[in-house]
Amino acid sequence: MHISEYYRILGLTRGCTVDDIKKSYRKIAREYHPDLNQDPGAKDIFISATEAYEFLMANHSRIASAESEYERVMEEWKKFRSEQARRRASAYARTSYSKFRNTDFYKSTRIFDGTTIIASIIISLMVLIIAIYGYFYRLHHPIPGLKDPSVFILIIFILLGMTLFIKSYIHLKAYIESSKRKSDVQKNS
User: What is the pLDDT of residues 17-50, one digit of tens each?
Assistant: First the structure.
């Protein structure tokens, strides 16, 4: 295959970003994985998309450089890695989608979005604050005919808020690390 075909398979153009490649591959993998899509051509589309993703991720920065480097990268890929990528893609196509989602390969398509992470931190803090405030408000301002608020429900909401907060914090740390790596790569280029 030619590089333009790899971009076409993923529905992208040559000037796309790494995040665009990840988003597009995730969408296609979910839509055409043979475990989820029984159409006869789904497996071939999945294998081609996986090969395209692997090539574009491995060579994204080199493709953006000079035209001679672009041709050299393509020849090197055809010689050494294209067949390996197709074999790996075929193996992924034979696994169930749930097992495929747990592979390091699929996990590499995750995108950490700062806005979403910050929003989830804010939501988790709001859950904690509202749970605690609501509990104590109900204690001091009881509603006639209703029992006192349940401590058990308060604990559940606190655990939920803490779980969301911790998960968001972990994703925030990963996002900051990946941003640092991206900026270091751009400085070195």
Answer: 888 899 899 999 999 998 888 898 899 999 999 9
Alpha carbons 18 and 63: distance in angstroms, whole number:
12
Q: Give the residue from 27, 9, 7 showing the smallest Cα distance to 17.
A: 7
Q: Helices 42-63 & 18-32, crossing angle to 10 degrees?
A: 170
Cα–Cα nearest to 57, from 10, 99, 101: 10
Mean pLDDT of 41-66: 82
3-107 has CATH 1.10.287.110 classification:
yes
The verdict on pTM exceeding 0.70 is no
Q: Is 48 exposed, middle or buried (0-12, 13-18, 19+ CB in 10 A)?
A: buried
